[in-house]
Amino acid sequence: MSSEPSSSSTALPPTKLIHLTYEGNFQLECTAKVVSSRLIDEVENDKNDGNRKVEIILDTTAMHPQGGGQPTDIGTISITGDDCKDYVINVERVDIDRSSGIVTHKGTLSCLSDVKEEEKQAVDHDSTNLLPFGAGSEVKVTVDPENRRIVSECHTAGHVLDAAMARCGRIMPPTKVSDCVFIF
């Protein structure tokens, strides 16, 4: 079942980042294995809607983590649980620990299979709070292609703007776009 991420992330192996390879630069899907997973934000998980906030560490990912002023990829992680039901994690954020190379995907876990109301309540009120999958489970990672395109184009536009400013003799210090105000 669920395995808690270690308090010392150095105990886990670094995540393979497919987008850093020549072949994987534009790859929007991959298969991976769960290294670690856990429930997060227990207050949110008590809403009894069958969805749970989770974080999951995989051995491989096609998703770009947050960094360098660039937003994170979003997408899904699909998995068949130990209970033979189909689940999806709607990934809302991907972070990397630069010192260990470990990538953490954070999102909302939903069951796609038909679940009877009594089963749903039994899972929601399970005092062990275990996830229906654990280390070693195989998953499919899928990047949202439209979001990736928009983020990629904005990233490239930032480089073009930087080059144009440099040609004009105006060097801008590195800043996060989220910290900027543009007046047109």
TrEMBL record:
Major subcellular site: plastid
Protein location: Plastid, Chloroplast
SUPFAM superfamilies, per the entry: Translation proteins
Cellular compartments per GO CC: chloroplast
Recorded superkingdom: Eukaryota
Annotated protein name in UniProt: Alanyl-tRNA synthetase class IIc N-terminal domain-containing protein
